[in-house]
Amino acid sequence: MEEQNSSPEKSTSGPATEWLDYEYIHYEKSSNWFWIVGLAGLLGIILSIVFKNFLLAIILLIGTLTVMLYGARVPELVHFSITNRGIKAKDDLYPFKALKSFSIKDDDYPFKLVIESDRLFMPHIIIPLGDAEPEEIRAILAKFLPEEPYEESLIDILADSLGF
User: Fold this and answer.
1) For the chain, what percentages of helix, strand and coil (3-state, to nearest 5) are there?
2) Which end of the chain is more exposed for a tag (fewer CB within 10 A), N or C?
3) Residues 6+ apart with CB under 8 A from 85
4) What stretch of H or E contains 22?
């Protein structure tokens, strides 16, 4: 009688690397920031009502409140990892088959990992690297994805300058 291995072999191994970091960099916003956002939103709402564009007024009201709530929100500490299946952020797995390329912004602190996905809406996923070593991340990801340079868009620059 042959001896059988009672422990089934796993097809996936543990994470190649993992780290903890906040989901985004939190910039403390003064009360002046909220006043400026509120007044800009109010001005837009008044102008859209004057021009009888009530749908735009509702959209601006919702947008202004959303920006103010998001600005006051404190980021959550997230567990990130890279496995042989993909990149995991909290409970979300970005499988390598749905990703096109990666770039590591290590020229200025805080370091960021930028992933280009095949999603139509928001194709770039920006992951903070925290205390993870950029060269280690680069070496691991190079086995799965090509590295391509990433230039920040106008929206990225604008979001950074507004404290998001």
Assistant:
1) 35, 25, 40
2) N
3) 12, 93, 95, 96
4) strand 17-22
Both tokens assigned to 153: 């868009």
Place of tokens 């020229």: 107
The tens-digit pLDDT sequence of the chain (164 residues) is 434 443 333 444 566 788 888 887 788 889 999 999 999 999 999 999 999 999 999 999 999 999 999 888 888 898 999 998 999 988 889 999 999 999 998 787 788 899 998 888 878 888 898 888 899 999 999 999 999 988 888 877 777 777 66
The model's pTM: 0.70
- What token pair was written down for 80? 């990130």
Residue 44: predicted pLDDT: 97
β-sheet with 86-89: strand ranges across: 17-22, 77-82, 86-89, 92-95
Per-residue tokens: 141: 């990801």
Residue 147: how many other CB atoms lie within 10 Å = 12
Give dist(CA 126, CA 157) in Å, integer. 13
